[in-house]
Amino acid sequence: MIYIIMGPSGSGKTEVGEHLKSIGMKELVSHTTRAPRSGEKNGEAYHFVDEERFMQVDKVEESVYAGNRYGVSREEVTRKSSDGDVFAVTDINGAMAFKRIYKEEVRIIYIDASPGTLRKRMKERGDSRETIRKRFQNYIRNEETFNRFFANIVIDNSYSKRRLIRSIDYALKVIK
Q1: Ramachandran angles phi, psi of 66, nearest 5°
Q2: 15 and 93: one domain?
Q3: Exposure check for the chain: N or C terminus, fewer CB within 10 A?
């Protein structure tokens, strides 16, 4: 099974990914043209490549965000899914691309939270006021809240981390 995690910025997608890894699920790591941030290791956070190499990769999906390219390779999906369930964190376009190619093997989990909670989390993780403003503008302009209708299950993460983890574990059983 391929689980796609999507939701607005600050919803808890990274937390969900960390939990899934802790229970033995492998993450599909994207290729990107952006430079590594401090502490990021090639092959773990992303496969860091230049523009030319990125264009050569056979990708399931790809997107451009803040001038950088991102995309999950078919090879990554084939290699990691041969050992069991995998997950990827992506936007709605990536989710639909996975659905088109892998059809019934894909389950989409939408992580949501109230706007106040999203704003608070972005602030707590150190996002600037301008970054938060831009993320909310993007959220509204792209009508991201409607992406929930493409999901197999929606999880409200306006509460505690413990509740989020219980919800994810329950979702994995229900949508298998």
Answers
A1: 55, 40
A2: yes
A3: C
Using alpha carbons, list the distances in angstroms from residue 150 to 6, 14, 99, 100, 108. 10, 20, 10, 13, 7
Closest CA to 6 of 97, 134, 116: 97
Q: What is the DSSP letter of 29?
A: P
Total domains in the fold of the chain: 2
CATH number of the domain enclosing 35? 3.30.63.10
Specify the range with the lowest mean pLDDT, choosing from 28-37, 73-82, 101-110, 123-132. Answer: 123-132
Q: Write down the residue that tokens 């990914």 correspond to.
A: 17
**pLDDT by residue (tens digit) across 149-174?**
999 999 999 888 899 999 999 999 99
pTM for the model stands at 0.89
What is the chain's mean pLDDT, rounded?
A: 91
Count of C-beta atoms within a 10 Å radius of residue 48 = 17
Structure tokens at 115: 């706007």
